[in-house]
Amino acid sequence: MKSKNADVKIPESELEAEDRGAEEERPRESDSNILDLSSDYPRDKHISIQRHLADLEKLADLREDERKPCPLCPEEKFKACYSHKLHRHLQNLHWKVSVEFEGYRMCICHLSCRPVKPNLVGDQTLSKMGAHYHCIICSATIVRRTDMIGHINRHVNKGETESRFSTVRAPKSSYKVVKESATDVQVLPNHSTPQKTDSYFNPKMKLNRQLIFCALAVLAGERKPIECLDAFGATGIMGLQWAKHLRSSVKVTINDCNENSVTMIKENCHLNKMKVKLNSREEDNGETVGNGEENSDTIEVTKMDANVVMHLRSFDFIHLDPFGTSVNYLDSAFRNVRNLGIVSLTSTDISSLYAKAQHVALRHYGCNIVRTEYYKELAARAVIAAVTRAAARCNKGIEVLLAVALEHFVLVVVRVLRGPTPADDSAKKVRYLIHCQWCEERVFQKEGNMVEENPYQQLPCDCHGSMPGKTAVLLGPLWSGALFNTGFLRRMLLEAVQYGLDEAQPLLKTLVCEAECTTPKHFSIHSPGDENKQEECGVYIRTPNTSAESYLVHGKRKSEEVLRSAAKRQRAEHSAEHPPFYYNIHRHSIKGMNMPKLNKFLNYLSEAGYRVSRTHFDPMGVRTNAPLVQFKTVLMKYSTPTYVGAQAEGPVHLPGEIQVGEEVPAAAVIKVEEAEVAEDKSGVATTVFTESYPTHCAAE
Length: 700
Known about the structure:
By secondary structure, the chain is of the alpha+beta class.
């Protein structure tokens, strides 16, 4: 009898006795309530996997007058003995410590099944042959019993209950139906743990799915029908929501390379009363629809590698949401995406993007990053830089429509502009960032090929001259352009209101304010009046007289002259873009002072003549075009000392009549002198004190 991992020689007499015993046991096993898996499992399963102890004893061919060896132990470990002693050995050493699965027992095995180091010979080899178990599903050898139990449970959670060559899914009773946005999907046990299930479903990514749906709805309003691809379907929840709500406006393709996931996607399509299209054939519970018949409730399901399906076909909308980084699929995504189409990608490798594993970020994104106060925006710009380089390799440029970085993911949505000129313009926006580690000031490195002797002099602060050693680092390359398109965000907000996506609406309102760099009290559904803007689809969009926004909305490719003129106007309007990065008000608070409320502080900065808004990257972050020195000056002016408990919130008078709007030297020191003379009950007056606060001081 041969096993997968070892060849065990058994005398012919024992094999004949085993065959006779198996014939005698067949009627008894057929009457048993235990499921007979003898026809399902492979015939060459290991001899340590048996149903009953008697089956294990038949392998040894126990006879009272003869010595027999143990079939699961080498002769060097257990010598041949009589039947009564061998029976106790099999029962105590092998059977009692077995692992049970669906009527079968995986007994412990001491044969030389596991590989041994080649440098071990003789007794050393025998001593290294430890006890182990053989998995009935995948034939793996595992040493510990607890590990074997966990190994079997992982197979069950994945729906694998037979051999590795024919996978059978878990019973229907173990499925759970989850409903999201009027869409029902079946999920497997442990569906929220990607390492333990093939069909991964994370309820915490609901906001991510709603944002992607709004972006697709806006594109569907520009031109229809559009072909969209969900490259990593898993349960198919995202593609089902697209087809169920947008209907005839989209032609949905859901792809996954896992067979279990593809089967579950088909079942979820039937659960939501959708037809499944496979190889130009549409199926719906056995019903076939002709190729010439159009049906809006049809979803195409493919089983391919994501790179392959994107190389073979062209799409208008592609969404990438793998487990981890998306950089391995960017080249394929931009290869065949149509002009003015949209590519969205979700990156969940936040440990590398948020500078917890900097070497991984350098390996995946080719970007050097450190942990800063604006690390989330740093992560978004690193992803966009990788997207820009991948698009430029295919002679395509991008326009960033949306960039969101939250606790669990980084979402980037870009529009594709075909041609070498847009590709060059996008590539020029990938630059290095100079970051001061002392005061957290930052500035993008200037364009040009000339090497500066001291590039750190580009920083507005004077830390490189007043502090010893190296105070700044070079980060990047990063995307230096805008992170949001205001018109696109407003249309996304209207789609979210129309389809009742409650979780996405507050975030989209924040993004619109952040894109325009305004406070929430100035927010309105329509942008401020502009003579060169017209209203379309309920929102104000730019006409061809101002920028290239119109050809993006109408979905038509304009001539090269129009594109060049639009690019020139966009350069003139570059100053109107939202300022890059933000400051954390807690990071720059002054020790011993109570800072003002965040909304009041935004008003103070706005009154000083600066553009200001909140940011979704950080709940205590402030996006403003004010230099860090002026930011700290305003914060200092409207902070109150902690020792004055009853003092109202108001300005602190600065010496020398320094006004907020004036330029202040970076190394200047603001002296705050306050004197308070009061007599307590004992008649002792308090002393006069003076404190100094440098403008370039750190959070301490």
